[in-house]
Amino acid sequence: MKTEAEILDIKRLFREADAMRAPLHCVHENFLGRGIDLYIGNKQAASDPELLKEHRIGTVFNCAVNLDINLVTTVDPLSKTLPFGWAPVRYYKLGIVDGPGNPHPMMLAGYYQLRSIIDQELPKKESYPWTETGNILINCRGGRSRSVTLTALLLHLDEPETYPTIDAAVAHIREARQLIKEEWPEAPKQVLVDAAYWAAEQVKRIRPYLPDENE
Known about the structure:
This protein is α/β, with parallel strands linked by helices. It has 7 helices and 7 strands, in the order αββααββββαβααα.
């Protein structure tokens, strides 16, 4: 059991590490050979349109339940109270708790939502202004736990030759995201990694029964 002083020291160390770390990092290039780079970042990265544009990020996937970001830059004239409309990027959200409290199927749903973004075809209508997926940013509040776990699950399942296990994907992301060793017990949290392992097994069971989208 850590003392209060030890806990304060750990929190200070984490704050210092966050301050030294860039808001986002590329963790995998050319996902599935489709020219899409995967980034992990924090709330600052997800809320900075210029930074997203600099890294050619066309899609933002926010997996933090306790983080809402208004990316709307083109306001629908039908807005009455709070504005709604279109963002310069495609924006998706999944509300994961950073720790215990998530039913395991939430991680499974997160994988399918994130994976489907890449295959999703949008109609050519005025209300769908985006022309391409672009690079993808997966973010949570700090870009250290929830986003790391979900991205590790994606990489393991869809790039298994490079990431034969979820732990291998996590280890790679920790290095790419510059997470110092002292952060590892919390970055990512083990309860989330356990849920990702469960989700990976379910995906492998389901895959033979998925419909062929080309038929």
